[in-house]
Amino acid sequence: MTSSLTSAIPHLSPAWSHYSDVIAERGEGALLYGEDGRAYLDFTCGIAVTNTGHCHPRVVEAVQRQAGILLHGQANIVFHKPMLQLVQELLPLVAPLDSFFFSNSGAEAVEGAVKLARKATGRTNVVVFQGSFHGRTVGAMSLTTSKTIYRGGYQPLMAGVFVAPFPYAYRYGWDVERTSAWCLDELDLLLATQTAPNETAALLVEPVLGEGGYVVPPASFLQGLRERCDRHGMLLILDEIQTGFGRTGKWFAYEHFGVQADIITLAKGLASGLPLSAIVSTRELMARWPAGSHGGTYGGNVVATSAAVATIQAIREENLLDNAVQRGAQLTSGLRHLQEEYPVIGDIRGLGLMIGTEFRDSGGKPDKITAKAVSQECFQRGLMLLTCGPWDNTIRWIPPLVVSREQIDQSLSIFADALAEAVGGS
Ligand SMILES: Cc1ncc(COP(=O)(O)O)c(C=O)c1O
């Protein structure tokens, strides 16, 4: 790091953990450039945000155009065109859901969704699932169970949150359907012993566990949640903040499982990097949310919503969902080859371009040290990859949906070299 700006770094709060000391200068597609000109393959996507790649020309053009016309058209004061255009773009993607509330961050959307569920049902409690990550604000943190660091020292948190198991079959060591059936049984027990259905407003779940370890549940699990919601009058809230906008090869991950939510939350990939989130539900349900009982100064910002319109158009018109499926298959098959050579890669799982490689030692225990060492070796070679999971022993692969065949090959070759360096071997 050479910049004269480095003297400012110690003045940033240490609450921010740092993956690297790169001072980012610019980004283009799957590449991020440091101020020293070095290029990195950014397979973090800024934590699953830049699904259309860095600075997609269409998004940049929309932002620049909008910034010259209007920067702030406050949603309580006026309607603005980009928000209305965004609603029109989203409607066919989320049908039969048809009502939107826009805010800025994922945490804000999740908290808003819980507020909506409480108002709409008149019930207070929420069930979340082990390994959940829903954000950092007090309400969202109370719903988060993926690591103790996120909650430690902040108790007491929001009350009325209950935790049921998520079907992380690889961890339990059972087959997927047995794990799913067990988790649903445990949920029934929770509803019989800790939070009665008539005081439970919602089940809140990530359709694919993100921060908690990139775990894909079987359809039977999410369908079992839907069935219980229908039986007991609870709402099903799907947090699509990390899984949405083509990440799993479909617009939204719930489409893989044949499950319809009552409420979904969106953020991250929605606006290609500008801060924007959404709570999406039905007009009937939203009608139970009285005017003024939720809000926010900046929600649905005019520049961010124009970026979102351009994002959706780019994903659709450039067939980025197809590319996510194809590049995801290419990446998974390359990783499986490497797994044959490196048994420390205990599990490879995912959908589309949301793939986790979980590291286990020879005794079958979570192997954070190797996962971190491999990630670090990748970084030294110009490939940015994050880890996740309760023990930080899962490397997550979240390249942009615009990633090319050559870039996936390049990432696999870097990963192979990093494994050889960190673990030893060919
Ligand atoms: C599934 C999920 N929900 C909510 C959030 C919180 O989003 P934000 O960081 O924008 O508040 C995240 C962030 O990683 C997430 O992955």
Give a topology summary.
Layout: E1 24-28, E2 31-34, E3 39-42, H1 45-48, H2 57-67, H3 81-94, E4 99-103, H4 106-121, E5 125-129, H5 138-142, E6 161-164, H6 169-172, H7 176-193, E7 200-205, H8 219-232, E8 235-239, E9 263-266, E10 277-281, H9 283-286, H10 302-317, H11 320-341, E11 345-351, E12 354-359, H12 368-380, E13 383-384, E14 386-388, E15 394-397, H13 405-423
Pyridoxal-5'-phosphate binds at residues 47, 105-107, 110, 133-135, 206, 210-211, 239, 241-242, 267.
Structural account:
The model has no long low-confidence stretch (mean pLDDT 97). By secondary structure, this protein is of the alpha/beta class. The chain contains 13 helices and 15 strands. The relative contact order is 0.15. The radius of gyration is 21 Å and the shape is globular. Pyridoxal-5'-phosphate is lined by residues 47, 105-107, 110, 133-135, 206, 210-211, 239, 241-242, 267.
Report mean pLDDT, rounded to a whole number: 97
Number of domains: 2
SSE order in H/E notation? EEEHHHEHEHEHHEHEEEHHHEEHEEEH
In the CATH classification, which architecture of the largest domain applies? 3-Layer(aba) Sandwich
